[in-house]
Amino acid sequence: MSLHLVPVSFSDASAFVAGWHRHHVPPIGHKFSIGVADGDGVLRGVVMVGRPVARHYDDGLTLEVNRTATDGTANANSMLYGAAWRAAKALGYSRLITYTQEGESGSSLRAAGWSVVAELNERKGWDTPSRPRSGRGVDGVQRLLWEAS
């Protein structure tokens, strides 16, 4: 199947993530999104890139891939990760990060040239007395931090 990159709006990317992502809802915002479509123009995947969720990475030069989702089309996810890094660099950013959860292989990231830079222990959750939050179903899961290179 022939794939090519396409522009995609925030609302269309969010709708795709809502329909295809395994365990997350769409993010509440983004800096940019990119789609990948087949030869017939059918959207097969999206990447949503925004400010880093962890505030200590939010230095003005770092972005985070907040979501990717595909319909399972081969090579779509690695194509999106590569395109996200090229776009971030073209916009003047010097770092692009993302996370995978325990049990996810990271093969699309490796195929796009990304590297693991840290293993993160599981957290109890994001709820604190000063900022109450409800769980999102992914608390207590070990994660890997990846960086584009």
What layout of secondary structure does this protein have?
Elements: E1 3-7, H1 10-20, E2 32-38, E3 43-50, E4 62-70, H2 76-90, E5 95-101, H3 107-111, E6 115-120, E7 143-147
Parallel strand pairs: 4-5
Antiparallel strand pairs: 1-2, 2-3, 3-4, 5-7, 6-7
Please tell me about this protein's structure:
This protein has 149 residues and is of the alpha+beta class. It is built from three helices and seven strands. The chain has helices spanning 10-20, 76-90, 107-111, and strands at 3-7, 32-38, 43-50, 62-70, 95-101, 115-120, 143-147. The protein has a seven-stranded mixed β-sheet, sandwiched between helices. The longest helix has 15 residues, at 76-90. The model has no long low-confidence stretch (mean pLDDT 91).
What features would you highlight for this structure?
149 residues, 3 helices, 7 strands, alpha+beta
Tell me, rounded to a whole number, the average pLDDT.
Answer: 91
Order of helices and strands: EHEEEHEHEE
Protein structure class: alpha+beta
Give a short account of the largest sheet.
7 strands, mixed
Distance between the termini: 27 Å
Strand adjacency order, main sheet: 1-2-3-4-5-7-6
| Number of DSSP helical runs | 3
Radius of gyration: 15 Å
Low-confidence stretches: none
Strand fraction equals: 25-35%
State the helical fraction. 10-25%
Shape: globular
